[in-house]
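Re: weekly structure request thread

Next one in the queue (226 aa):
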Amino acid sequence: MPRPTIPDRRETLLDVAEHLVLDRGFDAMSVQSVADAAGVSKGGVYREFAGKHELLDAVLQRSTARLGVRVDALTAHLPRPVPLSALYRAGVEALLDDPLMSAAMLDDRAVLGDHVRAVGPDRYRARFRWITAHIEELRAAGQVRADVDPEAVSLALSSVTIGLLSASALIGPLTSEQLRAALGVVAELVRVGIDVGGAGDGGDSAGGADVSGRDAAGTIHDEEER
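Done, posted below.
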């Protein structure tokens, strides 16, 4: 007897996969376990996703969009364009509020497993170029110092994020409080050294181009979407 049709099957599979990744880690999750938990056949999973890695990519992409919505809400009251430090802080708050993204950042249960190694360096290069372009946009809008090198700032922020991703393996497990404090230090350094006026409160926003709060999420968690 065929299994009953599940409404919004793709979203259901993503919900189940996210739960299993958080509970077991990516390496222990299987397409069959997702199918069993969702109440569909294994073939039903493959009709939506080509395989296990594609399924996790879709989960992470959905989480990225979820973070963007959260950052938009956190920065809605701020003048446009939103200063880089404020965007960074909003991204931190959104990240730590999201169980999947914060678990991936903290690596507390080896959440992404071998999926990290399966992704080549091109994604990192693309993110690096994107962050550089975003900082160039803020500089053109007068929101960061004119003498700031966008590529150097992008490299510094990317390196900090990647470094925090690997810190658990090198110095031991990190708590969310430790992560929040460390990223808060980075945001404060950006506020003092990069934001125009060093106030981190929007400064002179006249004539600035609109900057979506989704950019903050990208700055903070690009390296998690792997």
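The two ends are 38 Å apart (CA to CA). The chain is about 65% helix and 0% strand.
Next request, please.
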